[in-house]
Design a protein that fits this description.
87 residues, 4 helices, elongated, mainly alpha
Length: 87
């Protein structure tokens, strides 16, 4: 099971990296010469964007989990008021 999860994780990270390279307009360079020919500056930019996207998604997921716990415990009013504060 752990190997399967690692494979899924690796594919997801690769896909994110590829999508970011396309957004940044450097995907053509990677297609021509591979990741090894990419300047360190661009690799760092991709890594920084990956980190910020993952951090945001992780925080969002944690917040959703916390909301689910409060709703499941019957504290619907608190959960709804917290959602309104974030907007």
């Amino acid at each position: 099971m752990a190997r399967q999860c690692k494979g899924i994780h690796d594919r997801a990270m690769g896909r994110l990296k590829q999508d970011l390279a396309k957004e940044m307009g450097i995907w053509e360079l990677i297609e021509k010469g591979g990741w090894g020919n990419l300047p360190a500056k661009d690799c760092g930019r991709i890594g920084g964007k990956m980190g910020s996207r993952l951090s945001t998604n992780l925080l969002r997921k944690i917040a959703t989990m916390d909301e689910d716990k409060s709703v499941n415990s019957g504290d619907l009013a608190t959960s709804l008021s917290e959602k309104e504060k974030r907007r």
